[in-house]
Amino acid sequence: MKTIVTLALTVLTSSQAILIVWSKRAGRYEYSVTTANFLVEALKCFMSLVTLYWTWQTDGHTDDNRLSTTVDEVSVYPIPAALYLVKNLLQYYIFAYVDAPGYQILKNLNIISTGVLYRIILKRKLSEIQWAAFILLCAGCTTAQLNPSSDHVLQTPFLGWMMAIVMALLSGFAGVYTEAIIKKRPSRNINVQNFWLYVFGMVFNVIAILVQDFDAVVNKGFFHGYSAITFLMIFNHAASGIAVSMVMKYADNIVKVYSTSVAMILTAVVSVFLFNFHLSLAFFLGSTVVSVSIYLHSIGKLQR
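That's the CMP-sialic acid transporter 2 sequence above. Prediction below.
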């Protein structure tokens, strides 16, 4: 199960950035990103319920797969739901300040933030080799994404840098916090845990729609500006979200970081065929460093 969900996350993540860019028209989003984000949460909630229903049909109802819960258990879900809302919205708006390659470079800040928060919140100790592997991973990912226009990242406006840093911290904290919630009760069915997380995600996204896009939704309609690519992007984000929770359940956030890093390399390879993208020497060097980092992490995990 661990290997399957990790591979699924890698494949799904590799297509995320491509679909987001494809969903734009004339360099901007014609659809409401808050409504799109709401549909992602709603679809994840629906997928969790369908899987849970199948579990009930095969295994019956048990204490671990019942939707009924206690206030203490459900009260922890609003925090990561709110964090993911802000992080996901920032993911759209940061493209106003950087291009896709620049976004991928700034996104690597998430690697370090996850490692630090993993140690602070979950009290999980990483060996010196694993920390070295983490730094190599960040350097390798950044190197692989370098191109002649990469210097423009240094000219990113202050607000763009702040959004990137905040997004990295939110992503790391939300991921580590969610892992702590999911693993607090290991026997609890993951689909029940996902259901409550996504319910609060839907609630917060409704609030975001009312605050930010209420007039646009009322005047133009909920699905104004949507295209087939938009719906494909929504499905991809929903499936990726499910895969992330599964990785946290059966592995951990460190595995998630490495999975998304490999996805970055896979995205570049796919872009060769889709966008006539040319792989550079920096890409091959960076990919080699990432591979070495993955090997060192596995060695460090055995020696921990």
